[in-house]
Every structure is written in C-alpha cells, then in structure tokens.
C-alpha cells in the first residue's frame, strides 16, 4: 500500500478526507497558515486510528465517526475555506463535494432562531458560501457545485435559514460574478435546487427522483449568452455531473440504522407574519418519520415565500437604476416561473401552498407589474400563463384581476402600444388559445359570472381590434411592419381560440359516445374524469363546485343571461340613474328596499361614480331613503374626521349642485357623530367642518384656482363652529395638512384613460384602481411605500371577491356551453377573418383566417347554429372568387381547398350550408371545363334538326384556353371574365362590360391556379357522401337538387354538372336502409318532377332521361314482396306524365317506361302499379301516337308477361284492368278500344283459371272482405269469403260502365263480353258475391239505359231530349236493349239457384222496360218477361210469382201520374178561337183550321202530348197482354192472392182507360191537332175497348179454368159489373142515356142522328158490347135471375138505341128469348 492510499485510514470518510487534507497541506503557505497545517496533520493522525463501525452511529454528522470527533475532523475544512487562498479552498471544496455526493455527511442542517451555537454542518455550509467573496471563477463554480450537491444529497435535510442561505449564495454568484459562465451556472443551480425541493415536496420524501434541468430550454427570456452552444453544453454537463454524483446514495443511506435521528428538531413555523414556528422535537430522515414530511414541505413553502420576497425588492429613490437589484428581481421571477411550470398536483390541492401563491406570488405579480422593464413583463406573462393553466381553479378571483391588468390592458391599446409588450401579450394569448380547457373555463367562470369581468369576450374583441388594425384616419406609432405582425398574430390567436373550442367539443362528444358504450361499473371513473379541470389531468381544488346542477348548460345560460341583463341595468344607470334602479328592481336583480339599493350602489363594480353621487343627492323620497341607508351602512367608529370623510367619499363623486351636497354632508355629519359621540358637541359642527373640508380639497387641488387657501384662512373660516366654540387649532391644522398633501378622491380615480371605450370597460369591471397603479410608464415606477395604499386596496378587493360566488370555480362537460361562447365571439371573429382574407395578401394571415373559418364552421355546424354556420360558409364561398375568376388569387384557391376540406370533414353537420359548397363546386367545374376547352352543357341537350346540321359543320369543342391565349372569340370566356355577383345564378351578368386581352390573359393564368385542385378532390366529396349519416345525406341531396335547379334554369347556359352528380349520388347511396333512402328519394322525386315540368323542353327531356338511368339502376336491385320501393322511385314518371303540357315529354316518359319494363320485366315488382298508372294516363292522352305507343307496350305486357304482373303483389292485376278499361275509352281508334275489351276478357280467363299467384289469406284476419268499387254510387258492397274475388270487381264494373259508351260498337262489345264473362265464370262466384255483382255491375247497366230520349216538360216549357244529338248517340238502340234484356234473362235463368234472391231486381229491370214511355223498350220488356217466366216455369214459388205481378202492377200504375201531368199541359192550349164543342168531324173540318192558326210552341207541345198518349196506350195494352199471357201459361201455379193482384191490374187499367176516354175536350183538341198535322187520332177508344175486353176475357177464363176458385173469390159480381160498364159505355156512345142515370130529366121526344165519328166509335164498341151481352147470357139461370134487375134497364135502352150493325140486336134478341123470356114466363 502506498503512502497516498494510507492517508486517512481505513474508514470511508478517511478515504476522502485524507487525500484532501494532504493536498491542502501541500498547497498552503505554512508560515501564513500554521494553524491550518497543524489541524490537517492532527486530523490525519486521528483518521489513522478510526475505523468504520459495523453498527450505525446515531446522531453523527459523518458516517463512521462519532459526533465528538466529527467536528474535530471537519475543522481543517473550516480553516481552509476561511484562508482566502484559492489553492487551499479548492481541495477543501472538493472534499466537501465528495462527502456530500457519497452520502458520508448526513443529518438535518438548520439553525433555529436564537441558537448561538449552530451545528457543525450549518457552519460548514455557511463557510462554503463565504468562499464566494474570494472572487475567483473556479472557486465560484466549486461553491455552486458543493451547495447543489448538498441539497441534492438524500442523506442531508437542509432546512430553514440554511436553505435560504444557500439560495442567497447562488444569487450572489449570479448577480456579482463577472464570469458569464458562472452566472449561468448559478442560475441553473438555483433552478436545480428549486426542482429538487419541489420534487421532494410533491412526494413528501427525500427519495424523490430528480432529473437535471435542461439548460437549452431554461430561462431563455433574459439570457442572451444561451445562444452560445458551447456554453450551453458546458453548463448542461456541469449540472448533470452534480445530479449524477448522488445516484445510488439512497441505497447506502437505507443500509444505515433507522434509529438515526436528526438534531435541531425546531423548524420554521407556518405563521405567515413571523415566518417561523415550532414543529416536532425530533424526526428521522426516513420516510417513516412522522414529522419528516412536514419539514420537507415546510422547507418548500419557505423557499417559495422567499423567492417571492426576493422578487419584491425595488430600487430606492436614491438609486432608481440599480441594475444589480433588477437582475436579482429578474432571476427571482425566472425561478418562480420554473417553480410554476413544474408545479404538480400537490401545489393545487394543498391549501397552504395555494394560499402562499395567492398571498406572495400574486403580490409579486401585482407590484412588479408597475415596472416597464420588458423582461420583467415577459416573465410576469409566463408566470401568469402557468397560474392560468394549472391554478385557475384556486385563483379565480386573482386571475380575474390579473388578466385584464396584464393582458387586456395591452391588448386593447390599438393606437399606441409598445411593440414588444403587445407581441408578448399576443404570444401569451396564442399559448392560451392552444389549451381548449382554459378557453372554456375562462368563459364559464368569468363571462358567465355577474361579479367577474367578461374576459373571453374582451379578449376576442381586443384581438379583433388588433387584427383589423388602427381605424382609418387615426394616428398611430406603429410601422406598417409592426402593424402587420400584430394583425397576423391576432388572427392566429383567434383561429387558435376557435380551434380549441372545436377540439374541446370533439373531446367531450367523443367521451360521451364512449360513456354510452361503457358498462355501469365504469360510470364512477367517467364521472371522476369529467371532474378534471384540464390542469394537466390533476383534480381540481377541493372547493371546486362540481355539482351537476351548476354544471348544466341551462344553469350557465341563466347566469349568462342574468349578467347581460344586469350589465344592461348598470349601463342604463350610468346614463339615467333613476331609470336604471327602476329597471333593476323591476327585473328583480336587486331588492326594492332602500338598504338593498344602497348596498348595490356601494358594492357593485362598473357604476359611474358621478351618477352615484347625483342619485344620492336627489330630493325624491326613495333616493333620499337610499342615501340615508348608504350613509348608515358606513362605520366611522374610531376614525379621524379627515380619514372618515375620505373613506366616505371613496365610493362616489359629490354632485355639483350645492343642495345635493348639503343633503349628503348633513347625513354624513349625523352618522359620524353617532359613531363617535365624543368627537364634536353637535352634528352641526361636523356638518360645517365637512363642508369646509370639501371646499379646501377643491381649492387645494384644482389647477384653475390661483389663490390657494392658507392654513390660517382655513382655521379662521372654522372659528366658532363647535356650538360657538373654536376647535383646537392643532386639530384643524393637522386636518389642513392632511387634505393638502393627499387629495380626497375616489378609489377608482385614474389618470388619463387610453380611450373612452377602454375607460368604460375598466369602470364596468372595477379595474380603474388597478390601472391607476399599472400605467406602463417608467416615470410612475415608485417604491412600494408610494403605492402601499393602492396595493392594499387591490388586496382587499381580491379578498372581497373571494367571498362571492365568483370564488366558486365551475367545471362543465356539456358542449351546449359552446353555443353561448359562439354567440359572443362569432361576429367579431367573422369580421376579423373576413377583413383579413379580403384585404391581406400575407400567406400566414390568410392561412390563419382560412383555418379560423374552417374551425368556426366545424363548431357552429356540430352545435347546430344555423345562422352562424351559414354566415361562415357563405363568406368562404364568396372568397373563392369563382364568380369573378378574373380577379382570383392564390388565397382564393386556398379558400376553395378549405371548402373542400369542410365538405369532407364536417359534411354530417352542414345541413343547408351544403348549398353554398355545392355552388362553389359547380362553378369550379364550369371554370375547369372552360379551361379545358370542353363544349358547354347546352350542346348535349336535344336540338332541332336544322341546328344539328349546323353543328355537324362546326368543331365539337373549343380550343383549350390554357394553351391558346386568344379567347376573345369564345363567348363563354367573355361571360366568365365579365364576372358577376356571388348570388347571381349565372356568370357574365355585366353583358355590356368590355373585356380586354389583358383581362383574358389574367383569367387564363388564374385558371392555371385552379390546377392545384384536381377532379379527384371534387369527386371525393360526392363519393364520400355514402359516409354521411342519415340526416346529412338528405340535406346534401336537397342542396344538390337546389344547385342543379339553378344550373338547369339558366336562360342562357343551362348546365348538367349537378344533375349528373345527382345520378352518381343516388348510385353511391343506393345501399342505404330503406327508411333513409325513402327520404332521399322524396327529395329527388320532387326535383325530377319540378324540372321535368320545366318550360325548357331540352332541360326537361334531359332530366327525364337521367331519371330513366336512375330507374334502370334501381330496377337492377331485387325487391322482396310487399315492399313499395319501386313504386316510390318510379312515381316522378307518373306525376310528370299527368301534369306536363308537353307532348314530347309525355311521349318520352311512355318510351322510357316501356323500355324499362320490357328490359327489366323480371325485376319489376311494386313498380307495376306505376307502370300501369303511366299507361292509364297515356290512354287518356290527347295525342293519338302516345295512346297507340302506350297500348302497344300494354298489349305486349298482357300477352307475354302477364305472370310477372301478379308475381309478388296480386293487387297489380287491378291496376292492369283499370289501365285496359281506360284504353277502352280511347276516342282515337275503335280498334284499340275493342282490343282492350278483348284483353279484359283475357284477364278474366286468367283470373278464373287461378293464374294469380298470391291467393293466401292473411292470418288472423276476418275472412269476409268487403269489396266496394270506389266509383259505385249505390254503395252496395261486394262481400265474399275469398280474397281473390275482389279482382273481379274492377274488371266487371269497368265493363259495366263501358256499356254506356257513346259508341255503339263499344257498347255492344262491352255488353257481350261482360255477360259472357259472367256466364262463363259465374260458377266460381258465391251467392253472396252474385248479390254484389247484380247490385254494382248488372243493375247499373239497365239504370243507365232508362230515360233515354225522354222529353222534359217543366212549367209548360218544352225541352225534348231527342233534340240533343249526344243523347241520340248515347241512347241504346232497340237491338242493344233487346240483347241486353236477353243476356240478363239468360244469365239469371242459368244461375237461378245462386241468384234467385235477385228475382225482384230482375223483374224490376224488365218491368222498367215495360213501363217505359217508349214502345220499343216496353215490347222488349214484355218479351223478356215472358221468356223469363217460360224458362223458369214451375221453379217459381208463389211468393216469386207475387213479386212479378206486383212489379207489373207497379209498372202499370207508375205511368199514370206522368201521363196525366202531360195531358194537363193541353188545358192552356187553345187550338181554335171558337169555343164551341163540335161533335161532328165534318163540322170541325168546315171551319178550315190550318197550321197558321196555331202558334209553333203550342203545336209542338200538342204534338208531343199526342205522341205520349199513343205510347202510353200502347204500353198499357202491353201490360194487359203480358199478364194475360202469363195467366194463360201458368194459371195452374197462381194462387188466389196472385189472381187478386191481376184483377187489380185489370181494374186499374180499365179505370184509367175509361177516365182517359171521358176527357172529351182533350179529345177534341187532339183531333184538331191530328187534323192539322195530318196524322191519325190517338186510339183512346180502342184502348178502352181492349182493356175492357181483356178484363172480361180474364174473368171468363177464371170461370172456365178454375170454377172453384171462381166461386171462392166471388168473381161473378165483378163480371156483371164489368158487363154493365160496357153496356153503359155503348149506350152513351149511341146517344141514348139510361133511365137509371137520367134521373128527373125530361125524356126527349126526338133524337138527332149520329155523326160519322160517333158511328165509327159505336162500330168500334159493338164487338165489346156483343161480348158483354154474351157473358150475361152465359150466366146460370139463378145467377142471371139474381142480377137481371141490375142490367135489365140497359137491355131495354139497347133495344131503342141506334146501332151501327145488327150484331147487338141479334144478341139482344137471344137474351130476351132464352134468358129473360123464361124468367117472365116463369112469373
């Protein structure tokens, strides 16, 4: 072992001390430092004897050495560092460094207060610190090294004064060293010490891991030398060596005995005034020590407090330019910045440290803000940024003060700001704008708090003012470059703010989306996360208000609204105080009592002090009470009079009116004397003195007063005011001096505000007092004492605010708060971005403006703020300059890029704003095509043949503008260059403007700029549409349709860009769910319909073709059964087909639909309904070619593709039938109608054969389905149990209606087909369905056939239907009527078993024919009824026969009222002037009546009546005939009741015939008319004869056919009565009246011979009379005897009457001989 190795012995401490002491001995001057040499040798000898103990030695400062020897061993080091010799000091410092770095020195180092015997370690540290005085650079670095190592050592707890002493030593090196390297090292060591202490404070442990500070990123604000890279590297290595030297020491320390305890248990206390206190007596260094943690944090608190105190040192008035002190201040602020930058969650949660920040750091910021040193200001801003980002939850009130003071004050100075100062503020705001949570929290906690300033709003407004620059005409100190720098930075900040708002919104929305996916167990963690305040992820202060109620956006909205209204009230008060108070009371923002109003005036910031004084001085009752309450709320107890009046007047300015001042001072004097009863004799004294003080204050401090009041004058003026006595002169003199030296003024008085607006802001926020201090002028930098009063006031203001609601810090996660933020900032931001983008060509400024636009659109779109979103999007669209491309620049192209980005990124939220974006895309595409030389879209439209021929001789496209500069011949280019407004739908509205070649060249160069945007980006927007959500895609389609509409409606240059994109969009989104697609197609459908109905035929044709393309694509998709998708997308074809006035469009639609169906027939499902609707519309078209074209396709569909029609939905069969029925009504071609009818029969065959696919009934439903034809006016339903029978309804009803077609061939064909269908397929019908068929199909046919050709006579007016040619055309011919009746009878007979219940209906139809006023239908009815009875035969029951006869009876009686009404019309008609009744035709003819004697109208009416009478007689006779025939054929099946009905019919008819024949006057008129018209007379007599004869024959037939029935029904009296009537008629005609009827009339002695007419009538009645006589003679003897007395007189009259032949006499002779004779002879 060498001698050097043996030095110091075997102990670890000796290994370090030995070589170091040896080196000291070698370097020291022995003669000069004999004591040092001796001490070193003694220690070396001592070390030789020491050995490390296996057990730890307690309470020793050096490991392995007992405490008694420790001080002895370290004595040479004390002597060495005190030697003032660098060579000696250096090895001593090296030795100390090694002892500390290797953990051989351990323990607590501190010097308790009053301890005169500090520990050896404290003295060692103190001695090391004093080495700095040597002045050598190396020694300074060594000292820094040792001190930093000592603090870094985990085995040494440096506390209290010792720690502060180390910091001061490093300070001294920094400010006193002449070596810049040492200065930097000192700063870095201080920063490292601060980092070490803070790290231990955070973990409350000596084992905290600490990294070396980074020199390159440290304190770059004030150290210019950091630009030297070699210096930076040296300092970095220096500090890293110190930190790394202590690595592993903790392991060594942990091996020591845990029983080791520290000395100096007394530590500085926590009392802020004393800075010292008492903690536990003893504590171990280990973590387990109960008080160790408290000591560590106590040291951290002490260090932070002292740093703040160091920063509060100000130059004295004797040396105001003390640079050393200034450097120290800057260093302190830099260290505070480091502390705040690296502050962890403990600083924000520990109440003591948070209070230290409020008390010391905030005071430092407040006082240092008075300096105009730029470095200080920059550091203040940096510290403030750290406070804002990390401590804002606990410093709400303080931030509310400092933000306006540091930031807004500078920001709002637009005209004459300091460039560096404002740039610093703008950089600070840029950093703030990057923290989204800070932005949100500022708005929530200040702008939404009535007691806080509107920081967010003022910040945005200030940035906007800066971005817009100084107003025009104003004077500014800024250079253009500086102004531009401000503008760029301001726009960048604004863009950053809106970007952060968007980022926060996205984060919250994403978190809410994720929370929906989490399980309920994770809700707690989510809530905890939402409680974070954005302060580096740490939990907020424990006092932070986090209740969900207060965090809701609705609550914040209420607070915000309250604040706005409250500020409105304040503003109103500042103009008109009384109205302002009334407004606030009415709004219930303040109470209505005087005390509450006084409190409002005293405590509310923003009130105008002059207005407060004016209001308090009012004489009205309520303001006077408020003034009394205001004064009474002040406490003047114990205050000097001058102090009291100064305190009283600090809140308002005295009014100028003497009376108001008098009232206020009077009340003040009263209050002062009440608070201080022993001050004056009476309140009058105080009142007069107060007035004198006010006058003195005005006199002394008003520059306008030249002759100032002297003290003697003041004393003299106040003599005798104390109840006749004088106040002490000393008292008055002191009061005079106080007022003269210190003016009485309001606490908020400030000197020269920057501007009127800024001043009002300051007053509103209560910051005037702050700005009085912080005026940013060097001349006002004063020591602390000068501003002590104001500083104290600010501190009081902060404390006062901490007790209000403002101190509660709110955290929100509801994105709805952004709506209120946007409402505040969107308009200013919009102005800033717009003006910048419009006026500036700076790339950075325009880029930031566009970024601001993008993020503003994002926020407003996602939040659903339509107005704001549309404003931003519209502005961006205008800035693209696509509407005036000749003026386009690069920034406009960038705007277009931004719009594309917005469309892709925020498409889900753009809604109506899509229109502006798509308009830009449309115009961009137009310019792009124009540049490529593509032909205009109009060239693709349909043109005439002549235009086509002209275009064949022209080039197909224009030359490319980008290759050929001369485009003056291109009209499209000329129009675009002329430009237009953004809102104009077409370009080139300035048609008269001239275009120069330079403009063309500029335009072409601008087109080259557009090459930066390729078609891929544009197409990506449309391809990206399939990613849009359901709401967004609908809005996108709506906007695209609107833009396309504008393109197509251009009168000069219609374009199809958007139309083609519509087809693409539909294709891209075809696979969306049907609910979404239905909404999309609803929009597209309306669009296609509107454009399809356009007046521009070419456009309409193009659109319909586009619709066809879409439809073809849709038909490629298969559709499941029971869906309606195809029906929806084909609907536009129907609407356009029905509404279009253009035959070309209608023809195109028919062709399109035909092509689609025939090419995709297998895919057509629900679309069949639309197809048939289109063809139905075409069938009714006015153009023949359209009808034929549609029927051609229809024919092919029915012939070849009928199975596809009902493949998935059988109801389409009905649509097909309706379509064919419509074709049957075609008036252009009867062949079409006939073929359509044939196809209807084909459909019936298919239906009957079961060719419809779906016959299944719906489960669970009622099987009985009512089927009612919508056009059936009768309202009778079809009802059947089978669903498929419903398909018969439209087919049958259609044919039924067709039977009334005006064309006879169509009627005949429809009638034939209908009854053939019913006859051929009726077996498939149920009885119930047959009922419906009869009521809704068959019966309407015959009801339509009734009344044809009738003449209406109303009120004597003649209007024959036969005069209408249309009625003649539509009336059924006798042949068709006969056929119809035959079809009806055949059908009924064939299906009688199913339809027997409809017998009354059938008979009703037939009897309806019979009762027709026209003879031909009646004949048809008779024949049909006879055939019906003959075919049915015995199948009819008694009741059914009864129904038949009753209908016949009704038919016979139904015509009687009508014929009587007709006959009555003859009553008013005079055929001749002679009223004489002629009984002889010759006499009538002798008058020579001609046609001229009758009026035309009367003659026509008479002619009509004559015709009706003849027809009526014929019908009545037919009825008699039919009942006679029916009786003859079926008398065996008739019952007595039926016979009775027949007898009633005969009786009715004969009675009517008799009545008609009795109208002699009418008969005369009719004969005259017949004579005039030369036509035969009506057979009235024949009618009467025939009716009686038939009646008589019927009665006789009963007798002969069924004698028993004859007797049972007592027919014989009826027979006799009829015979009597016949004989009487004959006698009346012969002119012989019966004696039974003559009464008392005289018997004529002579008779005139009968005229020719009577003779003819008599001859006509002769056969009937003969028949009646024969019937009487045929009576049995007893019967004849019984009735002979009734008719014997008639027989006698017959004997004496005139006869036309001998037949009557012959029968009479027979009666007298064979019947009466035996009776007489028997008598």
Gross morphology is elongated
Rg, please? 62 Å
Spatially, the strands of the biggest sheet line up as 1-2
Which residues sit in consecutive blocks of at least 5 with pLDDT less than 50?
A: 1-5, 250-292, 519-534, 536-551, 748-787, 942-959, 961-969, 986-992, 1253-1277, 1347-1370, 1473-1491, 1635-1639
In short:
The protein is mainly α and 1723 residues long. 65% of the residues lie in helices and 1% in strands. Strands 1-2 form a two-stranded parallel ribbon. Strands 3-4 form a two-stranded antiparallel ribbon. Strands 5-6 form a two-stranded antiparallel ribbon.
How would you describe this structure to a colleague?
It is a single chain. This protein is mainly α. 65% of the residues lie in helices and 1% in strands. The chain has 77 helices and six strands. Helix 62 (1374-1390) runs parallel beside helix 65. The termini are far apart.
